Amino acid sequence: MSNKKKIINDPVFGFISVPNEFLFDILQHPYVQRLNRIRQLGLSYYVYPGATHTRFLHSLGAMHLMQEAVSVLRQKNVDISHSEGNAAMAAILLHDVGHGPFSHVLEHTLVSGISHEEISLMMMQTINREMHGALEGAIQIFKNEYPKHFLHQLVSSQLDVDRLDYLCRDSFFCGVNEGTVASARILKMLNVCDDKLVVEAKGIYSIEKFLVARRLMYWQVYLHKTSVAAEQLLIKILTRAKQLATEGEQLFASTALQYFLYNTITAEDFLWSEDALRQYALLDDSDILAAVKVWAEGKDVVLKMLCTAFMNRVLFKVKMLETPLQETERNNLIEQYRNKWNITSQEAEYFFSEHSSVTNTYSPQDDNIGILYNDGTIKDVAEASDMLNLQVLTKRVEKHYLFYYQLK
Amino acid sequence: MSNKKKIINDPVFGFISVPNEFLFDILQHPYVQRLNRIRQLGLSYYVYPGATHTRFLHSLGAMHLMQEAVSVLRQKNVDISHSEGNAAMAAILLHDVGHGPFSHVLEHTLVSGISHEEISLMMMQTINREMHGALEGAIQIFKNEYPKHFLHQLVSSQLDVDRLDYLCRDSFFCGVNEGTVASARILKMLNVCDDKLVVEAKGIYSIEKFLVARRLMYWQVYLHKTSVAAEQLLIKILTRAKQLATEGEQLFASTALQYFLYNTITAEDFLWSEDALRQYALLDDSDILAAVKVWAEGKDVVLKMLCTAFMNRVLFKVKMLETPLQETERNNLIEQYRNKWNITSQEAEYFFSEHSSVTNTYSPQDDNIGILYNDGTIKDVAEASDMLNLQVLTKRVEKHYLFYYQLK
Amino acid sequence: MSNKKKIINDPVFGFISVPNEFLFDILQHPYVQRLNRIRQLGLSYYVYPGATHTRFLHSLGAMHLMQEAVSVLRQKNVDISHSEGNAAMAAILLHDVGHGPFSHVLEHTLVSGISHEEISLMMMQTINREMHGALEGAIQIFKNEYPKHFLHQLVSSQLDVDRLDYLCRDSFFCGVNEGTVASARILKMLNVCDDKLVVEAKGIYSIEKFLVARRLMYWQVYLHKTSVAAEQLLIKILTRAKQLATEGEQLFASTALQYFLYNTITAEDFLWSEDALRQYALLDDSDILAAVKVWAEGKDVVLKMLCTAFMNRVLFKVKMLETPLQETERNNLIEQYRNKWNITSQEAEYFFSEHSSVTNTYSPQDDNIGILYNDGTIKDVAEASDMLNLQVLTKRVEKHYLFYYQLK
Amino acid sequence: MSNKKKIINDPVFGFISVPNEFLFDILQHPYVQRLNRIRQLGLSYYVYPGATHTRFLHSLGAMHLMQEAVSVLRQKNVDISHSEGNAAMAAILLHDVGHGPFSHVLEHTLVSGISHEEISLMMMQTINREMHGALEGAIQIFKNEYPKHFLHQLVSSQLDVDRLDYLCRDSFFCGVNEGTVASARILKMLNVCDDKLVVEAKGIYSIEKFLVARRLMYWQVYLHKTSVAAEQLLIKILTRAKQLATEGEQLFASTALQYFLYNTITAEDFLWSEDALRQYALLDDSDILAAVKVWAEGKDVVLKMLCTAFMNRVLFKVKMLETPLQETERNNLIEQYRNKWNITSQEAEYFFSEHSSVTNTYSPQDDNIGILYNDGTIKDVAEASDMLNLQVLTKRVEKHYLFYYQLK
After folding, report:
1. How, if at all, do strands A190-193 and A196-200 pair?
2. What 3-state DSSP class applies to B12?
3. What distances in angstroms separate CA D214 from CA B400, C198, D209, one per listed residue?
4. pTM over 0.95
5. How far is B402 from D140, CA to CA, in rounded Å?
6. In C342-395, which residue ranges form alpha helices assigned H by DSSP?
7. Burial letters for C110-135: b for 16+ Cβ neighbours within 10 Å, e otherwise?
8. Is D7 in contact with A188 (Cβ distance < 8 A)?
9. Candidates B28, B48, B284; nearest CB to A313
10. What percent of chain B is helix, strand and coil (3-state, nearest 5)?
11. CA A126 – CA D90 distance, rounded (Å)
């Protein structure tokens, strides 16, 4: 029993206490344990070899920050009951449970029409049934249906503990110190006004730094061209595999991967059959990697080449595009691959792709960050900061790329 | 070309420069890239969830330290030519290339009779052929056949850059700060006397700390009971799978894993057939993990239970043993599992194991650490330090455990 | 001799090597050693008790970064001779040598009409004479009279090693992690185009973070209201002491402090008499602190109260002002102190002060930060960054405060 | 009021909360504020220029660790009331309040016959009177007269929070990472058995590391030859000054320093006159440094030379001695200085000194560190650890040095 009150070493935050059995049991659930086998940053290790930390560790870290946030708010006389605190911690522990391996890749290939958030919710509901309703509060908070809305904001908003953890953690494991965010300091500045999370005015410089760090991490890590190139390659691989599967080709795959290769699984399937969720819950990075290696030795020349390139880190080259790819350039590329390998035009299309990376650092319309002044007034951070450029912060920045296999 | 002079971010040492094309090409070799898919600490993430760093990153870090060591020694007028420096860096970059996934597990099950060092050497020889002999020097250093023996000591000795990297790195990713070693400081204290690596006397306290840190990491991380319990479970899984394979059972496995499950591969095979090395070079963590998940849904009840336990982190319990397990205790255990699941005695043996963890912190007979005094004399560290207990340091410490599946 | 090639431990950058005797001799000069007794951040320790690092350590750290910068630029084929490298290192080592204790305070009281930069130059010239002209190059670089202007930019510009060191160092010792700047990364991105220091385009996010960190440090540390309150109090103390000295009162003071209390020293004096510089070179934090403690026991009631308040950390209270202090408010304050202590109006003025803190994060007119693109074009950072608000960055921000002694 | 619940930034432990007004008021006491002007490591900055942290910061850090320790013990159901917690924190906050500037130096020169611990106690009693008895508990704990003895052990024993803080802190500011101790981890392992502080068995490796780190810090920092050389020089300076004062010479000195120069103050004086304590409480580093600088310009040739050497970092040279200095060597030295400067033999003795540095890492007789096993038994750490050499750990290590002014 007391064994369940565990302390876990975290290289980022030091000792993390699992505060009670309820949370310990969630942590031990196979759905959560599976996150130990899914890397938080997918293929970023092709650029940052230290970035092999898992979604499990991120979830644990976010739970830790939630515990801190709840304790800070309580000290400021914000009313959060014991069970509300637990619910908030459970909600953040499970907020990413629905992620699959290489999420961005998967959502473009094998599992379409349903987001990882929706799957997270389904998984939470399943665990809730197994735990006889103990997750009701967590689910309400997650869905923003709980009366104290600020608890949802701690889980999901411009300034949630999710971001506070992942910016710290991802920058730590990538070795990009500039992405570090003063999580502890920001947490100390939190408060609640009219059921809304706010930051006390003296924290404004930390918030500015948080937003700048976030932007830096986007362009330097999350949307790094080489990671995206690796993702595009894996998308092509899975698309090709799915195409071959559809054509009846026998492909090596674990049971779970088979399920998603040989069936077209829609949001409906997740709703009406238990099978989809059950199989999904078995998928992790190893299914994809193990299959790609076997496919690299297979007989389809397209799949073989793509997989070999992927394993040996011969990634797509990147070119920034000012305008969408012109028809003639497109045809040139196709022609080139056709001539080289004697393949069809359709097959040639597997060797290049266009892709846009989009981000905006801050969207006040969604759920703004309020700055609380000593006189009780609240301003949106984009207004409060004279440093930050409102129009820029809220602007979508979009960059277009051509990814292509470079012939020697 | 200049693209090949890369800088790689390392969370432990900051920026690591790959000094030239020669080393960059080795880094890009599929054998080395494969280490990106093998975790340095195998199953330690069951205890330390941050410990997901790879053998690739360790090799890179060790290369970085070698570069530092060479530069320090040159400043002290130790003669190391450009090509010797390169050879030493190549040797350390490749010193672990022969590791398989979950090395300790594998060496007890699928790949026996040959050590990972021997496989490293074979892989180095293969790469050497591909690179037209460019690795000759590195191989000589690795095998300790190079005239300047101290270069081998930098690769492999009581105080090699391998240990300096892995102690720093493993403690960093585990979040066990106490294991940290002052690598930079120790490197600054290195010198060479009569072709032997020595540490200058003022570094003795750092060496003491290095030895104590090493001991601490052994018992707190490398031989942590829970990691070892996970390893024992995986050993049982692979042993059972191999048993079933031998009996002709069809088991899911990637091509490479199939090869080692359905054949008995000896050192001879590695020597006489290219196939063994080729298949081995395809194995990584994903083959094992993907298979275990499928086996957990299979029909052999023993394999099924073991795999389910493994995936869901229901690990073997541990009991320390003063004496080897008595026949009666052994029979009791077997009886218990037989009754519970209606299995044979032979099958019941898969649910427990005896294991001894052994370590000695320092073995002067192998290759001692010499302390160089200002007057030119050299003493073994165990003599030079009045703090450290010679007998103890050099003593094998052995702990005996019973690991067993706990019935509820 | 070899003793002079020293390695010094720095908690911020690790080991710092003093590269040669020339620099070692400068480091040992009494003018430089004196910086060991002057705190880099003056009275900031009243807010950040860890901020006790000295101007010596900052100068040493800046020299270390200069060494790195020179080495990075040489790798990019920027021509910097051995003696130019030495001169640049000497220049940065000495760039702050003219600082007195509590610089901002001193420049408003005892030493007026001459800046610490001018005194630094005089000291450099004195050392140069002692070293038989060995500092010629350093002086030229410092004065921006050396043909390679980028060397001066490394010493003094928007992105000099001075700032790179002090932002890192001050945030480190204050424990304000958010002020940390990726010095190592920024240095790696430096280049020189047409004799002008530039940053390569991929470093733009680091530069953005550098500017935001700088702004944060200004408002959170350098202009922290409590530090400024302490400074204002010390200004009042020294002004009162000088007043009493002028009136012929005997005050305890070290010889050097006497010199500046009992004489009115102008820039002229520094030019025409050696005495001024000689006495100035003897001043450090201890002269001021030792005197203040004695004065707290003295007989002038004003000086006594101010000094007692200062020693016991009963600092001035702060009120932000929208407009300059009105005549009536001013008179009210004076009246209040007069009544309380039975002092004159003139004496009452020692118990409050108005003060404006001013900063602009970036001034392109001075010496802008150029961003170098792959196509060879260069843009000013304020243009290149879509994040940063040009108007804001370059705007002077001014905050007006009333500091006053609070009666109980 | 709420202003008194402060959070203070500490570069070592992050945010430190002053938990309540009681402790805040102690922190603001002039006796405690004075520690802001006394460097924790005295003259160590001559070797480690970052080591300028103050006794104030150490006291604050130790209070923070005490807060953690109390909270850990309470979680383990050790009964510590609110006021006991406060008393323990007050006791540790004040444990070093009696330190003077450059303690080791002072205790050999101006303030003899009374230890800083005795003065700490006197100061605590003075503050206690001012606070109307609020420090009764703290004083009892400090004197080990409080019934719960383990509270005293937290303040002062082999494993007190004093050491846990200073090892961390001193290694941090010196930049000697190897001295770092896992304070947080060790605190988590604390427990109380039969009113005695113990460490749970799984913490044994951390304790071993703690002892080794401590030993390392002793020889590498606290007893570093260069620091000791600087101390010896300052002892000679103060001894000479006192000698001249006794002879009626007029020497520059602050009022407080005058008091100790021109009077012979004994333990009696502290007991029977308030003056001694009042003057002592005014002494800090600045009194000594300001005086030394003035003396360097004075007319006594011995004092002048010693002070000039000290200011310009021309420290005594060190020679290790196997045996006490022989009469002939002694006479040779004296002769040398006499001839050089035309001084008396007695005066020549100011230019050299013999000194022994002594330490033992662990003294079980005083107050041993108990290791608590799962079965409830307790062993002394020196017995429990097979690594550490009992005889060695408990052995006094003594090194004899000759310090002398080197003539050119």
Report:
1. antiparallel
2. coil
3. 33, 47, 8
4. no
5. 50
6. 345-348, 364-367, 381-384, 390-393
7. bbeebebeebbbbbbebbbeebeebb
8. yes
9. B28
10. 60, 10, 30
11. 52
Q: D18 falls in which pLDDT band (50, 70, 90)?
A: very high
Q: φ, ψ for residue B174 (rounded to 5)?
A: -75, -20
A289 contact C CB<8A: no
Q: Are A311 and A242 in contact (CB under 8 A)?
A: no
Subunits with at least 3 CB pairs below 8 A relative to chain D? A, B, C
- Report the chain D residue with the minimal C-alpha distance to residue A19: D75
**CB interface of B with C, residues 302-331, below 8 Å:** none
State whether B53 and A50 contact (CB < 8 Å).
yes
C178/A392 touch (CB, cutoff 8 Å), yes or no = no
Provide the pLDDT for residue B273: 83
Inter-residue contact A406 to A398 (CB < 8 Å): no
Separation CA B385–CA D105 (nearest Å)? 31
Cross-chain residue pair C178–A182, CB shorter than 8 Å: yes
Write down the ipTM of this complex.
0.93
Alpha-carbon distance D117 to nearest alpha carbon in chain A (angstroms): 35
Banded model confidence at residue D389, pLDDT cuts 50, 70, 90: low
Alpha-carbon separation of residue C206 from B30, B31, D164 (angstroms): 33, 35, 37
Question: What DSSP letter does each residue of D347-385 carry, written as one string?
Answer: HHGGGEEEEEEEE-S--HHHH--EEE-TTS-EEEHHHH-
Q: How many CB atoms lie within 10 A of CB C172?
A: 22
Contact A208 C220 (CB under 8 A): no
Nearest to B212 among D180, D361, D387 (CB): D387
With H, G, I as helix, E, B as strand and everything else as coil, classify residue C398: strand
Contact status of D188 with chain A (Cβ, < 8 Å): yes
Secondary structure string (H, E, C) spanning A259-274? HHHHCCCCHHHHHHCH
Find the closest chain C residue to A204 by CA distance: C216
Please name the residues in contact with C302: beta carbons below 8 A apart, sequence gap of 6 or more: C240, C343, C347, C350
Look at the block and give the residue holding tokens 């689910």: A139
> Residue A3's pLDDT band (boundaries 50, 70, 90)?
very low
Q: What is the H or E stretch that residue C378 is in?
A: strand C378-380
pLDDT at A1: 33
Residue of D7, D15, D188 with shortest CB distance to A15: D188
- pLDDT, tens only, B253-305: 999 999 999 999 888 889 888 899 999 999 999 999 999 999 999 999 999 99
- Residue B3's pLDDT band (boundaries 50, 70, 90)? very low
Looking at the complex, does the CB of residue A60 fall below 8 Å from at least one CB of chain B? yes
- Judge: C293–D254 Cβ closer than 8 Å, yes or no: yes
Q: Please give the residue that has the higher pLDDT: either A252 or D380.
A: A252
Q: Is the pLDDT of residue A183 over 90?
A: no
Q: Nearest CB to B9: which of A175, A294, A297?
A: A175
Long-range pairs, A301-309, Cβ under 8 A, ≥24: A301/A341, A301/A343, A302/A240, A302/A343, A302/A347, A302/A350, A303/A237, A303/A240, A303/A241, A303/A244, A305/A341, A305/A405, A306/A233, A306/A236, A306/A237, A306/A240, A306/A350, A306/A351, A307/A237, A309/A233, A309/A405
> Could you tell me the two tokens for D310?
């000290």
Residues 6+ apart with CB under 8 A from B246: none
A45 chain-B contacts, CB cut-off 8 A: 36, 54
Measured between CA atoms, the residue of chain B closest to residue A171 is B11
Interface test with A, best of D2, D185, D191 (most A CBs within 10 A): D185
Predicted pLDDT of residue B2:
41
